[in-house]
Design brief:
Layout lengths: L1 H84 L1
């Protein structure tokens, strides 16, 4: 009877240790996956923000260049028309 009790205790201890190890491994793996996913999401957000900023800067530069070119063309055309009319 005594041997059976000690055997049962050893089996219970082994099962508990195995369960604890499995739970710890699962928690660590899930935590690593979550950290990696968060890192990927943060990196994607940074890339999107950088792309948006670059697009906005390019659009602003293009608009400024177009406005300057249009003003120069208008000034030249007005000057030519005034010269021709006089």
């Amino acid at each position: 009877m005594q041997q059976c009790s000690i055997g049962n205790i050893i089996i219970v201890v082994v099962v508990v240790v195995v369960v604890v190890v499995v739970v710890v491994v699962i928690v660590v793996v899930v935590e690593l996956v979550v950290v990696l996913l968060v890192a990927v999401v943060v990196e994607l957000v940074v890339v999107v923000v950088v792309v948006v900023v670059v697009v906005v800067v390019v659009v602003v530069v293009v608009v400024v260049v177009v406005v300057v070119v249009v003003r120069v063309v208008v000034v030249v055309v007005v000057h030519v028309v005034v010269e021709v009319v006089e």
